[in-house]
Write a structure and sequence with these properties.
222 residues, mainly alpha, Tetracycline Repressor, domain 2
């Protein structure tokens, strides 16, 4: 790990620790610099703005999904089970700071932060793309487009449920995710029948048989 990456991780960890004692809104970057005995410019070089810390926090969730090879026979699982594991791995990576994660999102959604909301849309799209890769989904063309829209909806719905879920091991979120994935799978089966239906080839036209020619009997002269 490079020194710059190590410093960036230390800054993020310290920021999360200080924010847990108060809130994300009240977190001041100069307090992070003081706690780590570094300069404000050290923070600026790693995180040009406060929201970059939020992006780094979500990057850790992406990393948790992608850094470890899948369990044996993962590819043999039905697609809904693979997606379930991928999304829950992503959410579990954020569970230590669930309250702060909620506050981070509320900070992004403030009326004056339109630029952060635009970046958030790009983040959602990028994360869903990594979900598809991690779950080994291989649909193409129109099926892929429909799948991406559906997975984005499922991801956002389960994420929203998770933010306020205080059940053990996020059981309520898992139940919500299971229900959404069952519906998605049922719709997907219908779509697969629609888009993967083999084309019906017309029967080839039989070539007309050439007209039979009557052969006159050979006459012999007596």
């Amino acid at each position: 790990m490079s020194n710059q990456t190590d410093l960036a991780n230390r800054i993020l960890d310290q920021a999360l620790e200080l924010a847990e004692a108060s809130s994300w809104e009240t977190l001041q970057l100069h307090a992070v610099a003081d706690a780590l005995n570094i300069s404000m410019d050290d923070i600026r070089r790693c995180y040009p703005q406060k929201d970059d810390l939020v992006e780094a926090w979500f990057d850790r969730a992406d990393q948790a999904v992608l850094e470890n090879p899948p369990i044996e026979d993962f590819r043999k699982l039905p697609p809904p089970e693979r997606i379930h594991q991928v999304i829950m791995t992503w959410l579990d990576a954020l569970a230590k700071h669930r309250r702060l994660t909620h506050q981070m999102l509320m900070y992004k959604l403030e009326p004056g932060h339109i630029h952060l909301q635009a970046l958030g849309i790009m983040r959602i799209s990028r994360t869903v793309q990594w979900f598809r890769e991690a779950a080994y989904l291989e649909t193409k063309n129109m099926q892929r487009i429909i799948e991406e829209v559906s997975l984005t909806t499922i991801y956002l719905a389960s994420f929203t449920r998770w933010l306020c879920d205080d059940s053990p091991h996020s059981q309520n979120t898992q139940a919500c995710l299971d229900s959404l994935l069952r519906q998605w799978d049922n719709c997907g089966n219908t779509a697969r029948k629609l888009f993967c239906r083999p084309a019906v080839r017309p029967e080839p036209h039989a070539e007309p048989s050439p007209p039979e020619t009557r052969q006159e009997p050979h006459q012999t002269n007596h």
